Amino acid sequence: MNWQELKREADKLSVSDRLKLVESIVRSIAHDVNPRPPIPDDIVKRMTGLAKTNDLPPTDAEVETILAERLVEKNLQ
How far is CA 76 from CA 50, 67, 69, 72, 73, in A? Predict the structure, then answer.
């Protein structure tokens, strides 16, 4: 199928389907222009324990306090 035939077929699609087609084309081009590097085979092994902690996660109240403190610090600068 050449470009003109493809355009004629695309024109027959609904607006939402044409938008999906455009999104798909843009993603395809982005992948070709900027391909992602391959994921290393040992990535899981390297990432295991990266954020491991024995501490409990903060409570909602503690998170609110932390955010309030940071907001105060930011506004005092």
Answer: 33, 14, 11, 6, 5
